[in-house]
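Structure ticket #2291
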Amino acid sequence: MPQFKIGDTVETIDDVIKGVVESINGSTITIVSDDGFPLSFNAQELVLISDDIRVSNYDVAKIKKEKEIPKRRKAPAVKAKERTAPKMEVDLHINQLVKNPKSMGKFDMLNLQLDTAKRQLNFAINKRIQKVVFIHGVGEGVLKEELGYLFRKYDNVKFYDADYQKYGLGATEVYIFQNY
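Resolution: structure written out below.
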């Protein structure tokens, strides 16, 4: 057992208390803790801290206590499969669907666009494609409204305006819920 003298830096064996020896009375040693409190211990309960030791139990305990502070939860990571899932685009502009749109009436054009949208949506569902962007343009909003009516018929579909920076107001993105 080491001999302690006044002014030695000591640490308790069973507790996380560090201090400087203030007085010695037989085997009872009084220390002043780092917090400024005088505490008495039996000499067998103390360990002399030499200058060689860089990290003490007290320092380790202090660091552990800091680490116990709950960390912010990370957002759930997007699975690689979902992140790289190809986004299907369907352009419903009439000039993309037929060579000579001038020969068609507005009613026929709208029906062709809706039939194309329905066919492509069913294709995406069958091929397990999760996201489809239907490009409808801005216009008077008739096609967009009709697409909304069509998409509401599907239980496993959620639809919303597509990325504004990429499509402006002229596209609707459809998310298809798949049962894996």
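Closing remark: The chain is about 30% helix and 25% strand.
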